[in-house]
Design goal:
By secondary structure, the chain is of the alpha+beta class. 60% of the residues lie in helices and 8% in strands. Strand 6, helix 15 and strand 7 form a beta-alpha-beta unit. Helix 2 packs parallel to helix 10 and helix 3 runs parallel beside helix 10. The longest helix is centred in the middle third of the chain and has 27 residues. The protein is elongated. The N terminus is likely disordered.
Length: 425
């Protein structure tokens, strides 16, 4: 995970002179952490440079660079698009080469490799992103340099490097040491990145500080690939070049997954968009054996909120309502943003009493939201909810239920808003 996950909202303004760097706009303890990590990485590099690499080690490092840099250069356009879409902790696909270096080359050459990788990242990717100033790239490089140094310390204390470099057949003890080194590299990098996120922005849950399960699986897969790159470097260096193909393919697959997710997700709320919600709701109806309910939820006087407080506050309101919905419905219910200030919920296996109870719970929690505009004014909210149930008659589908729930919604609007209206009642 890279420090590109650092809070997006902190870095604004700046200039070319040192006094105008965006680094100085960070909160005090964040600035202290960033500078401290940077200086510690420089200190580790100075200590590592005291031991001169042998000619054979320079050759091994050359093979590693010959594999890493073409992959990084070929994938830089994908990385730029990935970063444009990153709004969460960001996994940088460089660990395969960095962990391979921790196993196969001296620490000084490993740290130089990290510096070269992130200089390349800055030149071709990060400098085009206004919210990722240079200090973030430097911090990312520093965290990975320290993580790699910690991993290398584990490997050298266990004798794995000498064992592998000598051509011996690896045993279970070697595998355990490599796994321990990978865990240390992950923990150091994730800990430093998670700390700077926690001190910079507010997160919904502490788990977000270490990324999602899929993010960490991606990181672990890179560390595993790094082991095979290191074995190739130590035993058959030209074979390391073959790893360019699977690592580039991994880049392509990650981008494809992000594009698929973006096509299904509403950017303002993180919920399913209308098309994706409709598709998923159709699938859910096909799986359910009981009655199905639909809720159409419309925020009352939402245009007034936009006109009075501005669209950014309106976006905050939508995001807060989305959070209320996802936390209020049951596991297995399908929630989406249907358009504008309207949301939709599919409720499988319910009866009328459950539909009313869920809808009323949502209404009360939306009404209880406390949102403050930048001016300090309180933003009051309410919602009108239309509900409909599948009458368990053949031929009744999702579209018919949506229309019935919409009719109930508008009946609730006419009756005074801030209420639940159930179709047919």
């Amino acid at each position: 995970m890279g420090a590109a996950a650092m809070g997006e909202s902190v870095v604004t303004g700046g200039g070319r002179s040192p006094s105008g760097w965006k680094l100085w706009s960070l909160p005090g303890r964040v600035r202290f952490l960033v500078l401290g990590v940077d200086l510690l990485a420089l200190g580790v590099l100075a200590l590592a440079a005291r031991a001169a690499p042998t000619p054979e080690q320079w050759v091994t490092a050359g093979w590693l660079a010959a594999a890493a840099l073409p992959h990084l250069h070929a994938s830089h356009l994908i990385e730029r698009r990935r970063r444009d879409r990153a709004g969460t902790p960001y996994v940088d696909l460089c660990s395969v080469w960095i962990f391979a270096g921790a196993i196969a080359v001296p620490l000084v050459l490993e740290l130089v490799l990290v510096a070269v990788i992130y200089a390349h990242r800055w030149a071709l990717v990060n400098r085009f992103d206004a919210v990722r100033p240079p200090h973030r790239t430097v911090y990312t490089a520093a965290t990975l340099a320290l993580a790699a140094a910690a991993a290398a310390a584990v490997l050298r204390s266990s004798g794995v490097h000498e064992h592998l470099a000598g051509g011996a057949r690896p045993g279970w003890a070697d595998l355990a040491a490599v796994v321990a080194a990978a865990a240390v590299q992950w923990a150091v990098n994730t800990g430093l990145v998670g700390t700077v996120i926690a001190w910079t922005v507010t997160v919904e849950h502490p788990r977000r500080l270490i990324g999602s399960a899929s993010d960490n699986l991606l990181e672990v897969s890179q560390l595993a690939l790094g082991v095979f790159v290191a074995l190739a470097l130590l035993w058959w260096p030209p074979a390391a070049l073959l790893m360019i193909i699977p690592t580039f393919a991994l880049h392509q697959c990650v981008q494809l997954d992000q594009l698929k997710l973006a096509a299904r997700t509403d950017q303002r709320t993180g919920l399913l968009n209308a098309i994706a919600w409709h598709e998923q709701a159709e699938h859910a109806i096909g799986r359910t054996r009981g009655r199905t309910g639909v809720l159409m939820i419309d925020l009352d006087w939402f245009k007034r909120i936009n006109d009075t407080h501005g669209h950014p506050v309106g976006d905050d309101v939508l995001a807060e309502v989305a959070t209320v919905l996802t936390r209020t419905v049951r596991r297995g219910d399908t929630v989406g943003r249907y358009g504008g200030e309207e949301f939709a919920v599919l409720l499988p296996d319910v009866d009328e009493a459950e539909v009313r109870a869920i809808a009323e719970r949502i209404r009360l929690r939306i009404r209880g939201l406390r949102i403050t505009a930048p001016t300090g004014e309180a933003v009051t909210l309410s919602a009108t909810i239309g509900a409909a149930l599948d009458p368990s008659e053949p031929g009744t589908g999702l579209d018919e239920m949506i229309r019935a729930a919409d009719d109930a919604l508008y009946a609730g609007k006419k009756a005074g808003r801030d209420r639940v209206a159930v179709a047919g009642c």
